[in-house]
Amino acid sequence: MTRFLTILLAFSLTGCMAMVFGTADQLNQLSIGMPKSDVLKLLGPPKSVSASGDTEYMQYSWVKTVIAADANRPGDYYVAIQSGKVSSFGRKGDFDSTKPPTQRIEIDQTVRQSSSTKETKDLYTELKKLKDLKDSGVITDSEFESQKKKLLATQ
User: What residue numbers bound the domain in which 42 lies?
Assistant: First the structure.
């Protein structure tokens, strides 16, 4: 008897949720291109309204059906209105997003090394070579200074 009362109570509470929130079956009455005024007559006022650009999003909270096996919690459903007419409707995932899609732009960029950096690196390399020649005794200090001045003058 207790089990029967528990089941009866569960069904009655589920029915109460449907009475309070309404059911998502109401969306079946909509069609693309339907005027906003007809939507408001069929569904009543939305829970909230937001807009982005020329699109208005009306949000409703409904349970899926009167009796559902998955706890039947209220979920958010959307109706998108563009230029005064229905452009899409359903749950957020039914049409990927209730907002206009964004574009992902990837930029493939090659960074070029400036010629001055390359010349600076070459200058450093040449000066290092000259110093090594001087340190090893191949050229004298005066030859090193003379060659160094020539390299610096070309920069």
Answer: 2-95
